[in-house]
């Protein structure tokens, strides 16, 4: 066969066997306002070949009609065990309407009298013939399905062979059912109608939650760890929202303590992993935790609590491919292990009978199986060489056609935020939307790849969406939304603007690929497309969302042959060609040379732009409604009922700020440091202008006031004084420390989880070779003179702060365990406070590892019996840290010899019998859980409140205090700040300090006066003030997240603590957009308010299927049905709108109920 014959044959597409399509022709009068937007001609499929069922004269009753609606896919399809609401329901005699009391509800809707609306005319669009040349058959095509794992066999089940004369198929558990479509079409989250749709979509779950009566106790927690895992309602919600059948790109799981965020993300991934690769990005310390959670709530095959039997390879040589396929293991792995663990679902679990060695072997196999399905990367250990190898030197996008899960995403976002705006060359794109040049910073490379990824589902996990900078929110939601890719076509019309605009609406109104289009008066047509794989769903000329379900009809290609049309499977290049062809076919010329793609972001991601648009006066958030629109459909917010099991803690009464006056000696050394710091700050700011008006966000590094912060904790006696990093002047040490910090980490994502360098770590990294020797000499001096330095009188001079901490810890009323936190590990932090404890009756709790590998106590005889402290700062080995943590938590392994030694001292450590004080730093204590900690001592403030919350969270976990008496199940927090007395301010400090170290806020002059004024503040007070101001901003921004969440209305109920005002848009038309591609064209909140009118209506109590709703009469033939609970909320709070759940229409004398 010649090459020409091959090409000719390839041009002739094969004809698939035609399936019969059944149409149901039922005349239903459309009485909604939406019908006004539809075109007169709705016969868009007149050219499609459809075989109709001949029903003849058979009578069709109401029940038969509903049954056949179900058969046509109009109703929901759910997983086994899920409840379901049908979309069509006809009112019966048991449903009741009752006039409510004389109460009107008021809310705002868009004022259609003031706002010009777009009337979309729909027409049939003739399929265009493709005249492109045939594709080179050797060209590598991009994969849209999951690539088989390397080395893993892919044997069809019918070819599986027996193992030990038994069928493997009968033994292994079936895979979990994938999440399937629950409605026939999904509204895009860029439309206002999305809000009503999603509230209706989750209405069944809301009913369950309102009727739920949970009574949790710590005794119930962990009772049955081996019970079958079942998804909770909030986990089903996110699974149903983000899956193969929904058009949504990403979701932030902003879920509280005890909610099971990891299992929620696994539920999403498990529903998609069969067709997409799953990439999990975690901090290095949390990877193991994620894998263990997959074994708990992932695929049944990954669960350890089953019957496992070892199958030696010598007994199953012929079944190698079968075992590889069934278990997802590479054949090489099975050969290397000389066998495999095979599960038998028909037998009870035998885990308890396996030896430790067998369990270790099984765990290794499960890890291997999981890592075949899940691809793990540590985002705080990823190097440039690794990313280049994963992406073919950046030619491929790692995240295309995948599910991406990022754990503790706030730390990942923080890395991006720290690098934005620091690149010499900005990222640019060509006219086709392809990137011209990648950034240098690895964090920004990942940012661009995630923004550009096609056909991706992104899941973010965090309990704290913002750490430090407000623009972190912009980065986070930009990734979830992805670039809003907008095609710009310059037209050369032969007719006037109004005529062309009307023509374009007629042409593109019902186009299956297009999502949004706008024609400007400068003749530019802007278009966005539907998500990859999705097409517009139209019913009687009205937009009903998008769908990716297979079509029942087939269309003809250019050669007149029938082809199967996969929905939405069209490349960007073909999409552009298609638009141009449609325009030219309708006599609208296009300047092809001016056609380009513009890449819009959902939100500004640089601090100045974000602050200008969303931050108002007095640390408030402005344009809240605009922000809600831009992030609509991208968040899930949930607080677990298990939070009730947290130990008592009221931030108002249990968070105590301890202000301590400096000693005169301390103040003198402090002022010397501040003078040097101010000089350096002046130099630096002259080179780099301030980027925010309040100065809250201009100090990005740990070098901010580093020495004066250290001197707030402790000052060295003179001599010897404090060792400087470079044996030079303080000003030069500060300059070098500050200058070097900003240069770190541009080529890799290494470091601790937060991506921040602690203050003293930063000094050490930029010190000279002899710095550690000088530190050692200083510590030696302190130990030798400790009796005079660390007694009460000495501390009053050198560290009044440490004296207060010591007395608070030793106070007889403060019974129980104490947690001490500092940002500084050496000298003025944990290092010197350790000496304070040593000289005041405490000793360090130490353990040592013997030659046989067994851990033992390492406390000298003279120190036995003293109260102890333990260190958990990052300098200890991981094994040592974990043993110390378990001893502190009273979680003692009976199989360890050290446990017998501990029990000789006490039966547990609930009251500090073994370890009274645990001292931690940020880098040494990432993600740890502590038990029975009643007192938290935060040595110094931090410039963002998230760090403080995280420290408190270490001590306050669900059921962490269950072993203590009820009256001791609480947490108290002390934050220590150094201050200056009024006398010191007047007499002891310089004019420079008085002038330049003023507070940002005004404070009350005295308790008896209402007068306020700015005051001189220390570095401790300045940082705390910054943190407090940021807290106000962060609280405002996180409230926006909560109120725009997809499940806000689902969880909202009267009497809840937060009283959120969930986003609502009244009764919008389906064509109304919630946001536009270009944020600069989005109206501000002030402008939007002018376009709204107040609507008042009197609700009628309506009992439907035994459940109370509220009915609003719209016309004689149309009623709106609202959720009862939200209606009651709106009566109490006029800012809350009732949730529109159903629309009821009268059709041929019958009331028909439809989901919104």
TrEMBL record:
GO terms for biological process: DNA repair; replication fork processing. Keywords: Hydrolase. This is Helicase C-terminal domain-containing protein. Gene3D superfamilies: P-loop containing nucleotide triphosphate hydrolases (3.40.50.300). Residues 903-958 form the Helicase C-terminal domain. InterPro entries: DNA/RNA_helicase_DEAH_CS (IPR002464), Helicase_C-like (IPR001650), P-loop_NTPase (IPR027417). PANTHER family: DNA ANNEALING HELICASE AND ENDONUCLEASE ZRANB3 FAMILY MEMBER, SWI_SNF-RELATED MATRIX-ASSOCIATED ACTIN-DEPENDENT REGULATOR OF CHROMATIN SUBFAMILY A-LIKE PROTEIN 1. It comes from viral metagenome. The keyword Hydrolase applies. GO terms for molecular function: hydrolase activity. Residues 675-694 are annotated as: Disordered.
């Amino acid at each position: 066969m010649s090459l020409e014959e091959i090409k000719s044959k390839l041009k002739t597409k094969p004809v698939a066997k035609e399936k019969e399509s059944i149409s149901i022709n039922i005349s239903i009068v459309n009485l909604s306002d939406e019908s006004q937007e539809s075109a007169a001609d709705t016969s868009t499929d007149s050219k499609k070949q459809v075989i109709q069922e001949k029903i003849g004269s058979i009578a069709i009753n109401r029940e038969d009609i509903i049954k056949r609606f179900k058969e046509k896919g109009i109703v929901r399809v759910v997983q086994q065990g899920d409840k379901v609401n049908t979309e069509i329901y006809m009112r019966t005699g048991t449903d009741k309407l009752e006039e409510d009391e004389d109460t009107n509800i008021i809310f705002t809707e868009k004022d259609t009298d003031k706002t010009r609306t777009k009337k979309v005319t729909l027409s049939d669009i003739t399929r265009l013939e493709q005249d492109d040349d045939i594709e080179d058959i050797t060209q590598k095509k991009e994969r849209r399905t999951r690539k088989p794992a390397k080395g893993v066999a892919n044997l069809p089940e019918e070819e599986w062979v027996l193992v030990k004369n038994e069928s493997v198929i009968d033994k292994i558990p079936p895979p979990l059912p994938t999440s399937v479509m629950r409605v026939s079409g999904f509204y895009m989250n860029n439309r206002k109608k999305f809000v009503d749709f999603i509230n209706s979509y989750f209405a069944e779950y809301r009913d369950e939650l309102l009727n739920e009566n949970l009574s949790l106790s710590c005794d119930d927690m962990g009772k049955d760890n081996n019970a079958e895992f079942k998804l909770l309602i909030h986990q089903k919600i996110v699974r149903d929202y983000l899956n193969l059948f929904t058009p949504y790109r990403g979701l932030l799981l902003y879920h509280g303590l005890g909610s099971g965020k990891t299992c929620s993300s696994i539920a999403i991934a498990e529903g998609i992993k069969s067709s997409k690769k799953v990439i999990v990005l975690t901090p290095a310390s949390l990877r193991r935790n994620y894998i263990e959670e997959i074994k708990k709530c992932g695929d049944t095959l990954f669960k350890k609590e089953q019957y496992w039997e070892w199958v030696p390879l010598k007994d199953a040589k012929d079944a190698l491919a079968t075992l590889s396929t069934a278990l997802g293991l590479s054949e090489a792995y099975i050969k290397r292990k000389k066998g495999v663990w095979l599960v038998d679902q028909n037998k009870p679990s035998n885990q308890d009978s396996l030896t430790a060695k067998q369990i270790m072997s099984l765990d290794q196999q499960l890890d291997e199986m999981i890592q075949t399905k899940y691809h793990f990367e540590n985002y705080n250990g990823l190097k440039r060489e690794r990313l280049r190898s994963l992406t073919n030197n950046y030619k491929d996008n790692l995240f295309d056609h995948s599910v991406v899960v990022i754990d503790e995403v706030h730390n990942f976002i923080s890395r991006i935020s720290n690098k934005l705006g620091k690149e010499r060359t900005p990222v640019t794109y060509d006219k086709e939307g392809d990137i011209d040049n990648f950034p240098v910073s690895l964090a920004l490379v990942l940012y661009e790849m995630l923004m550009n990824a096609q056909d991706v589902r992104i899941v973010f996990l965090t309990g704290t969406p913002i750490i430090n900078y407000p623009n972190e929110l912009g980065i986070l939601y930009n990734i979830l939304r992805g670039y809003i890719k907008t095609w710009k076509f310059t037209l050369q019309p032969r007719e006037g603007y109004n005529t062309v605009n009307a023509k374009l609406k007629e042409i593109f109104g019902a186009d299956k690929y297009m999502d949004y289009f706008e024609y400007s008066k400068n003749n530019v047509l802007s278009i966005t497309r539907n998500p990859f794989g999705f097409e517009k769903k139209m019913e009687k000329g009205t937009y009903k969302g998008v769908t990716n379900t297979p079509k029942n009809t087939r269309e003809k290609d250019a050669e007149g042959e029938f082809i199967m049309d996969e929905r939405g499977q069209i490349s960007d290049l073909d999409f552009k060609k298609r638009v141009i062809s449609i325009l030219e076919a309708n006599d609208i010329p296009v300047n092809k040379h001016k056609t380009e793609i513009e890449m819009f972001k959902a939100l500004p991601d640089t601090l100045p732009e974000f602050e200008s648009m969303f931050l108002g006066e007095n640390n408030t958030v402005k344009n809240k409604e605009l922000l809600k629109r831009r992030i609509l459909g991208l968040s899930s917010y949930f607080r677990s009922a298990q939070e009730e099991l947290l130990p008592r803690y009221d931030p108002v009464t249990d968070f105590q700020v301890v202000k301590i006056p400096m000693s005169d000696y301390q103040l003198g050394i402090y002022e010397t440091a501040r003078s040097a710091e101010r000089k350096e700050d002046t130099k630096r700011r002259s080179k780099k202008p301030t980027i925010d008006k309040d100065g809250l966000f201009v100090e990005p590094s740990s070098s901010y006031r580093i020495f004066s912060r250290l001197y707030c904790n402790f000052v060295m006696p003179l001599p010897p004084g404090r060792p400087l990093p470079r044996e030079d002047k303080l000003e030069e040490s500060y300059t070098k420390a500050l200058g070097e910090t900003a240069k770190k980490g541009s080529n890799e994502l290494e470091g601790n989880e937060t991506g921040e360098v602690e203050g003293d770590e930063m000094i050490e990294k930029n010190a000279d070779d002899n710095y550690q020797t000088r530190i050692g000499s200083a510590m030696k001096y302190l130990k030798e003179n400790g009796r005079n330095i660390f007694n009460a009188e000495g501390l009053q001079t050198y560290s009044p702060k440490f004296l207060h901490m010591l007395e608070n810890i030793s106070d007889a009323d403060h019974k129980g365990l104490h947690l001490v936190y500092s940002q500084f590990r050496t000298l003025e932090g944990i290092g010197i406070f350790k000496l304070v404890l040593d000289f005041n009756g405490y000793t360090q709790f130490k353990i040592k590892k013997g030659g046989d590998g067994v851990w033992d106590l390492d406390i000298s005889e003279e120190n036995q019996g003293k109260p102890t402290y333990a260190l958990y700062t990052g300098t200890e080995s991981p094994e040592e840290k974990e043993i110390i943590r378990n001893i502190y938590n009273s979680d003692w392994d009976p199989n360890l010899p050290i446990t017998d030694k501990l029990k000789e001292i006490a039966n547990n450590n609930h009251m500090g019998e073994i370890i009274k004080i645990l001292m931690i730093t940020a880098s040494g204590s990432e993600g740890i859980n502590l038990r029975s900690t009643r007192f938290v001592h935060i040595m110094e403030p931090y410039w963002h409140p998230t760090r403080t919350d995280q420290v408190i969270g270490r001590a306050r976990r669900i059921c962490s205090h269950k072993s203590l008496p009820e009256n001791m199940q609480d947490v108290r927090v002390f934050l220590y700040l150094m201050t200056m007395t009024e006398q010191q301010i007047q007499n002891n400090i310089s004019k420079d300090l008085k002038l330049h170290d003023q507070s940002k806020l005004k404070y009350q002059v005295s308790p008896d006066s209402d007068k306020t004024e700015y005051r001189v503040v220390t570095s401790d007070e300045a940082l705390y003030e910054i943190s407090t101001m940021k807290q106000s901003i962060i609280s405002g921004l996180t409230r926006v997240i909560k109120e725009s969440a997809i499940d806000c209305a689902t969880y909202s109920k009267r009497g809840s603590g937060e009283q959120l005002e969930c986003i609502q848009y009244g009764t919008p038309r389906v064509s109304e957009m919630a946001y536009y591609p270009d944020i600069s064209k989005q109206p501000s909140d002030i402008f939007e308010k002018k376009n709204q009118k107040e609507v008042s209506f009197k609700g009628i109590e309506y009992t439907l299927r035994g459940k109370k709703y509220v009915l609003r009469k719209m016309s004689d033939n149309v009623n709106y049905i609202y959720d009862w609970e939200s209606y009651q909320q709106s009566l109490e709070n006029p800012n809350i709108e009732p949730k529109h759940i159903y629309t009821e229409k009268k059709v041929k004398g019958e009331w028909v109920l439809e989901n919104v």
